[in-house]
Amino acid sequence: MQTGTIISLAVYFIAMLGIGVYAWLKSTDDSEGYLLGGRQLPPAVAALSAGASDMSGWLLLGLPGALYVTGLVEAWIGIGLFVGAFANWILVAPRLRQQTEELDDSLTIPEFLSRRFPTQAIPLRVISAVIIVVFFSVYTAAGLVGGGKLFETSFAGLFGTLPQSMGATDYTFGIWITAGVVLAYTMIGGFLAVSLTDFVQGCIMVVALILMPIVATMGEGGIGPMTNALRAIDPTFLNLTAGLTFIGFLSAVTWGLGYFGQPHIIVRFMAINSVKQVATARNIGMSWMGVALIGSIGVGIAGRAFIERNGIPMEDPETIFIMLADLLFHPLITGFLLAALLAAIMSTISSQLLVASSSLTEDFYRLFFRKEASEREMVNVGRICVLIVAVVSGVIALDPESEVLQLVSNAWAGFGAAFGPLILMSLMWKRMTGAGAVAGLVTGAAVVIIWIVNEWNSSFLGGEGIYEIIPGFAAAMAAIVIVSLLGKAPERKQPLDEPLHAE
């Protein structure tokens, strides 16, 4: 690792910490400020924060790695995600922004659900919080695995020279350094720090994802020679439907269903400064996402051509972005590109840590231990909870054989199936009951866990696996509808009946 690269990364780390200090001075006096930034995020910040917290290390590691190995057919995951994200902005964003404020200024998703269905308030808050903490521990671990792989690939031998009794490897140090920097600005500055750093990180990510595939393609002499090289490897490599079965297609595009239930993404909708600004934020966010996904696909495709034509050994396809950054660019630019990877990783980790922390503080600590806790006490407890979740996730990530995309897919499905149908129906169906909400929440999470444990996602009925979000989402939706219709219709007037003003 050359000095220029280290300098670029150091500047990036210092900038993130500086934003954390700024946010600490601006918005950490009370719980609403620490957990939602006072509901004052401008549209651009909310949009890029939602996008950056969504597009974690899998955007620069997992997705390019899948495309590197299999070919363009893996792009269906990105297509499904784009459609799902757009539907999320249309169906969930304006309604959630309006209803969480009107339902006694709810600060967390479990708190919103408990006030939407007061007869099942405690079960909803507790079960929601447990699901959030469990799946976010796995999801955050996926991000830390990405940090470990970055340091293992780019800082080879730098940390492994320390005593082995300290567990000193490039991979483990990468995990804890990544976690340490994220912890610093998240614990200090709360939601505003996370959102502002997400905005900066989102800008860095999209520049890197435009730059990398262009340079890699030019290094192959242009699109024509690159295409010929890929077809020589596999004639179907650039075929969007090569080897695609119906179940494979369904499993790929239904990643988009997960958006409706991702707490770290939809909480951004709650923080936009007004419902009227949702449409502006949506347009900005979807434009950013489209460019980012195209760039990620380009990294995997162009990277495979470059590696094959130059005979470079590639042990881990998920490190193709890192390899290209080291091989194609000046050390200062390499540092910027690696900062983009860290941005993708850290933006998601910080969002997940804060949401998990908010559930522990608001839905456990305040609910069961200190109902009269002061705002300052709640902020400090939230900081402690951020630390606890980060340590647990770090331990999960210590396995160097972990795959980023696999960890992300499991957690994504868990949230999507447990919360997706619940959030959609609670915002849009007046007839839904508290018992139906509990049934959907438990059913969605249970089906996903059973599917993963039994590995039915890889051996469905003895054949090709089906992504666990499909049975989980369908079962949760059925449970909500059936249990709600079997019970007494709830008495509800506002705010579900009020018109929206998002346009």
TrEMBL record:
Catalyzes the sodium-dependent uptake of extracellular L-proline. GO terms for molecular function: L-proline transmembrane transporter activity; proline:sodium symporter activity; sodium ion binding. Pfam families: SSF (PF00474). Belongs to the sodium:solute symporter (SSF) (TC 2.A.21) family. The chain crosses the membrane at residues 6-25, 75-93, 124-151, 171-192, 199-217, 237-260, 286-307, 327-357, 378-398, 404-427, 434-453, 465-486. GO terms for cellular component: plasma membrane. PROSITE patterns: NA_SOLUT_SYMP_2, NA_SOLUT_SYMP_3. It comes from Stakelama tenebrarum. Keywords: Amino-acid transport, Cell inner membrane, Cell membrane, Ion transport, Membrane, Sodium, Sodium transport, Symport, Transmembrane, Transmembrane helix, Transport. This is Sodium/proline symporter. It is found in: Cell inner membrane; Cell membrane. PANTHER family: SODIUM/PROLINE SYMPORTER-RELATED, SODIUM_PROLINE SYMPORTER. GO terms for biological process: proline transport. It catalyses: L-proline(in) + Na(+)(in) = L-proline(out) + Na(+)(out).
